[in-house]
Amino acid sequence: MSVDRFPWSTASATGVGSHPGEDHLEALRVVFGELPDLPYLPELPARGVGADMIGRTASLLVEMPVEVQPSGWRLTDAPGRDLRRAHDHLTRDLDGLEEIAEAYTGPLKIQVCGPWTLAGTIELRHGDKLLADAGAVRDLTDSLAEGIAAHLAQVRRRVPGATTIVLQLDEPGLPGALAGTVPTASGFGRLAAVEAPLAADRLRTLLNTTAADDVYPIVHCCAPNVPYKVLRDAGAKGISLDATLLRRRDEDALGEAIEAGTAFFLGVVPGTPTRLPDIGVIAKPAIELWNRLGFRPATLADQVVLTPSCGLAGASPSYAKAALAKCREAAKVLREDPGED
């Protein structure tokens, strides 16, 4: 099928990715129960090695095995116990997804770590981080693209009712790579800044390789200084960010992106436990942004999806469930007249 302008229902909400606890079936039940318009495959890093964002995505790499060292994930010569654990976690999650989503029809979101964040985290076999070696970054991007394509095929097979797969690349490390603030493996220095055209080119290569009529690519960056132009140049159709980090100086770039039809996944509910505000307060940042930038109120509920500000791994299961419910309820406010404050 061909993806429409926005493949989700108007006034939608979803989550960012991570969940608390170790019960993947229960996390899936919560996600599909609270977010019927745009559910996602949750990640549970509390399960340990290989369930974390880096290890989970590294398990998708083709012919680039990794292992855990005291300093973190590192390339190795052959697959070992750590990589098997990561594969096992993901396989169990896909088994659970197939069970819970048996009768589901509609868009489905999955998350993988993007190449720049991976490159700034994984170490070379006998040296610094992958980010220090342009050739290694290229190889990583190609390997990851091949692995994501295979992962997408698995998801399609297990959830045949998924009309669109929203592919979220998690790139919290991209602003640091562009600014030259990523520490070396020793921690005593900083790696050279990545030029914006190169950053966009590597992301574009990955997105082009995984492109399909039923794939809608977005990039999540919950760090300050979201590189909007880089993400748009790379071909991302949507940008996911923490609304509390938006600054007035970002608004020209935001306005250009909105006018160009970029979808925004706005993080409006705290990811860590707090007293959850009323749904009107939760929806307010999106409404005020739209009003300030002068866009038609009628487009708000279509182009904006509400989410927690970041992952929910640091919350309790009860808070995670309540946060997703609040996002869903607040999204309905966007369908009302945003011009009325």
Compute the number of helices. 12
User: How do the helices and strands follow one another from N- to C-terminus?
Assistant: HHEEHEHHEHHEHEHEHHEH
**Mean pLDDT over the full residue set:** 93
**CATH-level-2 architecture of one domain:** Alpha-Beta Barrel
CATH fold name of one domain: TIM Barrel
Could you explain the architecture of this structure?
- The protein has 341 residues and is α/β, with parallel strands linked by helices.
- It is 41% helix and 14% strand.
- It is built from 12 helices and 8 strands.
- It has helices spanning 24-34, 53-58, 81-100, 115-119, 134-158, 174-179, 196-210, 228-234, 251-259, 279-293, 300-303, 317-333; strands spanning 66-69, 72-75, 106-113, 162-170, 215-220, 238-242, 263-269, 304-308.
- The chain has a 6-stranded parallel beta sheet. Strands 1-2 form a two-stranded antiparallel sheet.
- The radius of gyration is 19 Å and the shape is globular.
Give the secondary structure arrangement, pairings included.
Blueprint: H1 24-34, H2 53-58, E1 66-69, E2 72-75, H3 81-100, E3 106-113, H4 115-119, H5 134-158, E4 162-170, H6 174-179, H7 196-210, E5 215-220, H8 228-234, E6 238-242, H9 251-259, E7 263-269, H10 279-293, H11 300-303, E8 304-308, H12 317-333
Summary tags:
six-stranded parallel sheet; two-stranded antiparallel ribbon; 14% strand; globular
Short summary:
With 341 residues, the protein is of the alpha/beta class. The protein has a domain at 24-246: Alpha-Beta Barrel (TIM Barrel). Helices cover 41% and strands 14% of the residues.
